[in-house]
């Protein structure tokens, strides 16, 4: 019974979360009264205008920012404890690969820091390179790969220590639409294979609708959740599903949520 309850517990849970930055020009209210539960295996996208707190919330989950109000737990722990327990991998907007290390060397870096044996590092690097379709590129340097391939390598690095949660901050925002579409498809396949819980920040309505089981719509600062949309799309999603009436209806609801959010008090 105890094991069943542990599995059913929320992976991420925020209650009345607020975060205020103190600056020389006065306080900046980044988040206010954010309440959200993320279950195991969810793919949750956060969408809203620039400065609405999407990235701030993701960073709070990763213990890179610290809330000033409310509560936040990750795998039942406070975010700092979850970070020490290596509960998540984090993918930033830029690939952030070290140019003097090979792709495999970049992937193995966090494993080196964590004290994994060389054999385990090699095995994990091989496994995650296969997951992101970069077999044979381990000995290449970042400058020898395209932007899309570099970002896949960044995802591989975040997957290397096999955390249950993957946090992604606009990982495809700087890529052209064709590459972005391909990586969206690959990310869905990766999610299906690994069954990770994914938190994904984006500015793109089609990307949010295509990828997610749930879409969290946020208002301008101070960031509040104005809508949480449960996707009715099937788990397997070819790109042409974006032309379906169901997809268009969900996108319309996201767009309406973004418009109505602009009426919130700033």
Automatic annotation (TrEMBL):
<dbReference type="GO" id="GO:0016887">
    <property type="term" value="F:ATP hydrolysis activity"/>
</dbReference>
<comment type="similarity">
    <text>Belongs to the ABC transporter superfamily.</text>
</comment>
<dbReference type="InterPro" id="IPR027417">
    <property type="entry name" value="P-loop_NTPase"/>
</dbReference>
<feature type="domain" description="ABC transporter">
    <location>
        <begin position="14"/>
        <end position="245"/>
    </location>
</feature>
<dbReference type="InterPro" id="IPR003439">
    <property type="entry name" value="ABC_transporter-like_ATP-bd"/>
</dbReference>
<dbReference type="InterPro" id="IPR050166">
    <property type="entry name" value="ABC_transporter_ATP-bind"/>
</dbReference>
<dbReference type="GO" id="GO:0005524">
    <property type="term" value="F:ATP binding"/>
</dbReference>
<keyword id="KW-0813">Transport</keyword>
<dbReference type="InterPro" id="IPR003593">
    <property type="entry name" value="AAA+_ATPase"/>
</dbReference>
<keyword id="KW-0067">ATP-binding</keyword>
<protein>
    <submittedName>
        <fullName>Carnitine transport ATP-binding protein OpuCA</fullName>
        <ecNumber>3.6.3.32</ecNumber>
    </submittedName>
</protein>
<keyword id="KW-0378">Hydrolase</keyword>
<dbReference type="Pfam" id="PF00005">
    <property type="entry name" value="ABC_tran"/>
</dbReference>
<keyword id="KW-0547">Nucleotide-binding</keyword>
<dbReference type="InterPro" id="IPR017871">
    <property type="entry name" value="ABC_transporter-like_CS"/>
</dbReference>
